Amino acid sequence: MEYIKNFDDWNVKKQSLNNSLAKLPYFKEREIWWLSIGVNIGYEEDGKHKDFLRPVLIMKKFNQNMFLGIPLSTKIKSNPYYIVITAQERTVSAMISQLRVFSSKRLLTRLGKLEKQYYVEIQRNVQRFFVLPPSPKRKSRA
Q1: Of 54, 56, 67, which is closest to residue 26 (Cα–Cα)?
Q2: What top-level class would CATH report for the domain 7-129?
């Protein structure tokens, strides 16, 4: 059965989140939150249910409005971009290939804080995959 993406309902929810005057929640790095991640394009990870939710690990807090987050999944894959960890007494995958910037307006409910050992492991993997090599040296035009 083909999965039909509900862009229309997500658009209504997204507008509501954007226009919300609710106080932004306080959050920290290493925390896991339910996020209204939405309906996305192609193979980008989607949220589920009426609020389009997915658990997300906060990797880097930029300010009270923005952070770098990694969606979590209960699907365990043999894939270098899926880092298997234990979070909230469940075995889950941190999908580092889905790493992205989120607005804190998407935060719904705090689920807990990831143990430091798993957080450090994810950090190492993110650095391994996303650190760009140095630019090649250019020949000078003398």
Answers
A1: 67
A2: mainly beta
Tokens 């999908």 found at: 95
Tell me the pLDDT tens digit for each residue of 50-70.
776 889 999 999 999 999 999
**CA pair distance 13, 11, nearest whole angstrom:** 5
- Total-model pTM: 0.79
CA distance 96 to 121: 12
The 8 Å CB, 24+ separation contacts for 83-86 are 83/121, 83/122, 83/125, 85/114, 85/118, 85/121, 85/122, 86/115, 86/118
Q: How far is it, in rounded angstroms, from Cα 12 to Cα 111?
A: 25
Question: Any idea which residue has 């650190």 for tokens?
Answer: 131
